[in-house]
Request: fold
Amino acid sequence: MLIPCALKNGDTIGIVSTAFREDKSVIDGKINYFESLGFKIKIGESVYKEDGYFSGSTTARTLDLMNMFKDKDVKAIICFRGGYGSINILPYINLNTIRFNKKILCGYSDTTVLINYISKKTGLITFHGPMINSDFNNIETLESLKFTLMQGNKPYSIPLGNCSFINPSEISGRLCGGNLSTICSSIGSPYEPNFKDKILIIEDVNEKPYSIDRMLTQLLLSGKLHKCKGFIFGSFYKCDSDNISNNFTIKEIISRIFTPLNKPIILDFPIGHSYPNLTLPIGAMAKFNLFKKTLDIINPVVK
Reply:
C-alpha cells in the first residue's frame, strides 16, 4: 500500500467539492473554523461554483482534485460535502498523478466511491472520515480525525465498548466501503470496491427499512458479501421506521441477511451520518480483537 505523509500543525489543507454545491456563507464559516485549528487552507476553484445542484462542472471538479494532488504546498485533501456527484468524476481521474503525489484524501457519504476507487486502483490509503461541512462540535469526531491523520504513524486500537456483535470471531482484513447507497450505485461498474478478503464498512442515512433491505440484498445476490471477511455496521441515522408494528428494524434486517453468512459483524460502530463519526483508513489492515474488544489498525496509515 502507498502511505501518505502525516498532517502537521500549520500544514495546508486543500478543500475540494466533488459533489453538491454549498452556500458561500456556509463555506466561509467552515473554512474559518479549520483555520482556527492552526491549518492553512487552499480552496479549489469549483468549491464556490454552481452547476445545477453540483459544485461546478464535472471537468471543473475533476481538475480541482487533480490540482490539489499536484500542488506541493497541499499536504492533505478533505472533501467539503457529499450529496451526489463524486461518481461522475471517476472516469477522468489521472491515477498516475495520485500515485506520484500520494497524500491524505478524506471524505465519506457520497465520496465513498472516490476514496474506495482511488485506494483500489493506486494502493493509496485513503480515509473515511468527516468532511469540512461536518459538525465538529462533537469532540470525538474532531479528535479521531486529527489523531488518525496526524499520529497514525504506528499501529493503534479503537475501543468497541458500545458495539455489539454477530458471529463473533477474530479476523483480519483490509478496510473498504462506507455509504451503502453509494456503494450500490457503483456495483457492476469498473468503479465498484474490491470486496475480496475485505472488512466492509456499511452505513447510511434517511433510508426506509425496505430500502436498506433491498440494497443489502443486492450485495448478497451479486456475491459481494460472500467475498468479504467481515463487516462493520455504522450508524443508520433516521432509517428505522416510526411504525415498528409492520416493519423490521435495521438490526433485524442485518441479522436476517448476514447471520447465515457466518462471518463476524460489528454493530453500532460510531461511523457515518451521526456523531461521533470516527475516521477509518480505507485500504489499511485491521483486526477484530475480541479479547480486548478493539478494532486494531495493524500498520501505520500515515508516515
User: Anything to note?
Assistant: The chain has two domains: 12-151, 156-297. Residues 156-297 form a domain with the Glucose Oxidase; domain 1 fold (CATH 3.50.30.60). The first strand starts at residue 12 and ends at 16. The chain is about 30% helix and 20% strand.
